[in-house]
Input
Amino acid sequence: MMNEHLYLPTNIRGESPMDPVYSSNSEHAYYPITNPLYETSFVSGDLVNQQPLNMYQRSQAPSNHSQTETNEAGIASDLGTADDMDPWDYILKPLMNVPEVQPAPENITCDCGSPYRDQWNKINDLMRDGSEVIRRHIDRMWLDSRDTEFDFTIRKRMNEILELMRWDKVNPGEHEISSKLITHLYGQVRKQLNLLDSTCDNDYRISLLKFSDRLANPYCQSAIASHIREVLDAEKAVIDHSEMQQNASLIRIQDLSTSLEQIKRHSYDTENSMQAMLSEVQELQLMCQGQLHYIDMISADHLNASQRAYLKNAISRRNDVTESVTRAVQEMWQNQDRLMEVMKKVLDEEVKNYHRNQAFINNGQLPTHSCSINQLQEWCKMMASLISCGIQTTEKMRQYVVCPLGLEITQPPNNQPSQISLFMIQLRMRYKNMVEELVKRGLVVDKHPPQVLMKDKRFQCTLRHLVGDALDIHQLNFRVTAHLLDTDQALNVLTNGPGVEIIESGKIVNHQASSDYLNHGGGIISINMRNMCLKMQQRGGQRSQEMVAEHKFAMLFRANIDVHHNPSQPTTVVAEAMSLPIVVISHGKQEPDAQATILWDNAFSKLNRKPFEVDTKVPWNDLLDALDGTWKKACDEGQSGKVVGLTKEARRFLTIKMYNQPEVPAETLISWQRFKHEKGSNLITFSMWFFKAMQLCSSSHVKKYWNNGYIHGFISKSESHDMLMRTAETGVFLFRFSETLKRRVSISFNKMLEGKRIVINLQPYSLKDFDKVPLLDMVKQLDDLKYLYPDIPKDEAFYKPPVTDSTRGYTPTIFKVAVSETSIHEDSGLPNGWQVNQDTSMDADSP
Output
C-alpha cells in the first residue's frame, strides 16, 4: 500500500487535513498534494515554482508505495512504486478518487466579509470632514469604551488586522470562538513586536507589550474579546448614525434643490413661450396696422373676399395666441404654487430647524439637522431670483401680449376685467407678498449673543440676510436695532408680527449696526454688532434674586429694508429675527444656576413653542447627554482637538448622586424641581454642584489633565479608598471632586504607616489654591505621591518642561505645599497627625 501522505489532501494553511483551498479567482476547490518528489506541497491545477528533488533526496523518499486501488467498476489497479511511476501519476491518479468537495469552514480570523472592514478609515473621514459635534461624539465613544491595555494606539496601528477578524461572532458563553480569535491576535501582536526597530515609538512598544501580556492570560481572553467587540460595535454605530443622518439630510436637501431646479426650468419654458407669443403679437399688429385690439369690432359686410380671408386669418391667429396666453398664465400660476410650497418648507422648517440646532450646538450636543446657513442662503437667493423672474415675465406678458390683444377687459357693454386680467393681477399680488415674506423672514442670527449674559459686560453677535444680492436689497445699507424682550413681550411680537410696539426690558449700549455687503462667498449681507453692553436695573428683593437665574429673555433684531420689486413704488419691509433664550445675571454667583436654566431650555424645548415654554420632566439619560455635551464644550482645548466628556464612571456617579443607585430604568424621568432646586445631604443642589465642578475642570489649571485622563473626578471617597487599597504599589494617588465643597478637588493616595496600608484624603483644593501653587507643582512637591492610578509614574504624567529664565536679575520665590503631622483636620479623612498645610480659605459662595 502506498503511504497515505503521498495522496491525502494536506492543507497548506495548517488547518484540518481534509479542508479544501479556494483559489482567489475561482469558486472551485483545490486540494493541496504532498509529493515526495518535490520540495513543497502544491495545489493541483497550479504547478508553478515546484522544483524536482535531486537524486539523493529522491532516494530518501519512501520506495514501498505499491497500492491496490479499486476504481468505479470494481477493478483493482496497481499504482506501482514511486521509482516506477512518473511524477504526474502521484497527482492525477489519486485525484480520480478525491472525496466529494465539502464547503469551506468559516474563517473567523481573516474574513474579508467582516462587518468591521474599513471601519477605521471611515472613522478618520468623520474626524476630518465631520462636524465638530460628530468629532466630539467619536471622542466620547472612544472614551466610554476605553480599556487599560487595549488603548487607542493599538486600535489605530493594528486596524487592518482587527477589522478582518470576526469579532461579531463573540458571544457570552462561547469561549471557543473567543479563544481562537485571541490566540490569532496574540500571534499578530508578537509579530508586530518583532517587526519594531529601535526607531519605533516607545509608547507603542509599551502598549503592545502590555496588551501581549494580557492576551497570554487565558482568564482574560473572553473579557478582551467582548471588549474589542464592544469598541468596534460602538464605532459602527457612530458610522451608521452619521451615514443615516447624512443620507436623510442629503435626501431632504436634494429634494428641495431638485424642486427649485424644476421650477426654474418651468420659468424658462414660460419665458420662451412668452417670447414666441410676443413675436406672434407683433406680426398681428403689423397685419392689423396697430389696431389688433379692435379686430373684433371690424364688420365683414363691406369687405371683399380677399379682405374677409385676411381678417379671418388674423382672427384665427389672434385666437390661437389667446389660447396660448391662457395656458401660459395657468402654468405660471401652477409654477407659483410650487414655488410658494418650497418657500414655506425653507422658511417654516429649514430656517427654524437651523435655529433649533444652534441651541443643540450651544449645548455641545449632536444636531438633529445638518443644513448649513450657506445652503439656506443658496435656496433663498434662488427663490428670490425666481420671484424676480416671475414678476418680470408677468409684467412683460401683461404689457406686450395681453394689452395688445385686448384681453384686459371684457367686450362692451360690460367692460369688466377679463378672467386673464384677474389672473395676472393675482399673480402680481402673490409675487409681491412672496417678496415681502422672503425679506421679512430672511434675517437670521448667525452667531447668537451669550445665553448667560452678564450685565455691564461687553458682547457681540452677527446676523445675516439670506436673500443676499438677489433682490438688490444690498444696494442700500439698512440698519439693524437690537431690543431686549422678556417672555411676555417676545410672545406679543411672535403673535402680532413685525412692527408691533416694543416695551424693552433693558437698555443695550451700541444696539444698532449697519449692514455690510461682502461680494466674496456668493454675495453675503452681514450685520456685525460689536461692543454691545446691557444696562439693567436691580430686579426685586432677596427672594426675587433667587429666581433671577430662571427669568428668560430674548434679543429681538429689527430692520427696515427697502424693496424695489416695483421701481415706481418701493416698499419698506420690517424684517425681524430673535435670538436664543438669554438669562441675565449681575454677578458670578448666579452663573451656575443660569447655566442650568439655559442647558435645560436648549436641550428640551420644542421646535414650535410659545416663548419660552419647556417640559418640566425629561428622561434622565437625555439630561446626562446634555450635561455631557456642555461639559465637553467647557473643557474643549481648542486647537488640540482633545476633549473628554462624561465617562461611564461619571454617569454612574451622577446617577448615584441623584437616585442613590448606579442604574435606573431607561424611561426614568427627572424633574426640573429636583435637578435645580432640591438640595442633597451636602446642602447643595445637583445643578449647582455639577456646574461648579465644571468651572473647576474647565479652568486652565485642570483642563489639560482632565483631557489627558489623569483626573478621575467623579468618584466617591469610599470608592477611591477601595481602589487605592487594592493597588500593588504604595504612593498611588488619584484626583476626585469634593462631594461636600463646591468647585474643589481632592487628592487621595495610599501610604504605609506603622506597617499598615492606609488611604489619605488631602483637604480639597480650590481655584484660589491653584493660583498660588499650580496643580503640577503640587504633585511634584508632595513626595508621598509616586504613581498616578493605576501605575503611571507621576513624572511621566506630570512632566514639567524646562522654563526659560525670566527673573530679570531677581531671585525668584515659590509657594510650596507639604503634608504636616501637627494636627488633624476634622473632615479630611486623614489618619492621626496628617493634614494639608495650605491656605484653607473657601470661595465666597462655598457653604
